[in-house]
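If you are new to this repository, start here. Below is one unmodified record pulled from the training split, so you can see the exact layout before writing a loader.
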Amino acid sequence: MKSEFDMVLFLSPVLKGAHATRQRHIRQAENMQRAIRQRWKCPSPWAWKEKHVRWYFDGPLGQFAPTTRYYYSLTAALIRLRRGCR
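And here is the target side for that same chain:
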């Protein structure tokens, strides 16, 4: 049985701020993970490359409002920070 990747555990070292903000980042990261896993078969952010995140912003997130894309970019920055990328 394949275990599901725990995004809360992955992001917890870099999450700061209000509870609602932490929950938003987790929810958005899970949305990103679901879409990237379906399209690219990458099960966790450890396996993502920059092209996967760019695809998400250009594809599934492309028609959303600029404000929504901004908040997702903050979540993507947290994922990069957690992975050790700058």
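Two things worth knowing about this chain: Residues 20-83 form one domain. The chain has four helices and no strands.
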